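Aim 2 progress update. The chain analyzed this quarter is reproduced below.
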Amino acid sequence: MLVLTGSPASAGASEELQIGLIEARVSGNVLSPPPYGREDADIIYPDWFRGTWDVYSETTSVEAPCGVPLFGGNSTFAAAKREIGASNALQYRARFIDGSAGTIADREFNVREIVKQAMGANAVQDVSLATPDKFSCLLSPAGAGQVLSVDLLTLDRRQEKIDGKNFHCAEVVRQVVAPINQNKPQMTPLPPQQPSSKTVLLKEIETASLYTLENENKLRCVQRSATFLLPSQQDPLAQQLWQMSRGRPIDVRFYDVTYTRR
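Predicted structure tokens:
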């Protein structure tokens, strides 16, 4: 398994973090990097997640904490803003299955379903690895005219069982995207949102989810994603952009998500 360094928190510090941390980061829209580390081998969901769901995900907010230029520019920010609202909601299926330690997400199924709805029915060309710590696939988004290699590397993970009807979880994932005909450097990030056919795009994304059980057939979730830049000793521009961000996310989005049991 590839060993990576995630957020600055040590394992010892993570163990001392109090329940309610994830909710505080979402409700307070905290702009500092997450203080938790990789606390668990996987996210173990309450048993009431088990099964297949129809998911309705509506973007409710798009923010550029470091300014529009670091977000990706005016056109990128405007396009992201247009995703807000019910008319652009994403609808897909999600599945949770039995794992050795309890109920877990069916990662390959869920990624395939999301990508199919967001990028086209045939966008997923191949999935070569689907584990809690690494997901690797080939994507060919509709209209893109190229095949991309995508690696999702989980750096940090935390879960909090609040009570019988509320469950919170968060993961920090390093996303590495590159054309399949190009070698992929592991630590040379380029400006986000602006990949060309010959660039490699790296970013780290914290996704925090606050789940509430409404009844046995419906879940609701408030979700926040925050995208962070990476430092680079090889790319002066990427290093400069990272310094300009001062450890803050460049792209923050909120979603209202509803799960209805099939």
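Residues 1-15, 183-199 have pLDDT under 50 and may be disordered. The longest helix spans residues 107-119. These observations will guide the mutagenesis experiments scheduled for the next reporting period.
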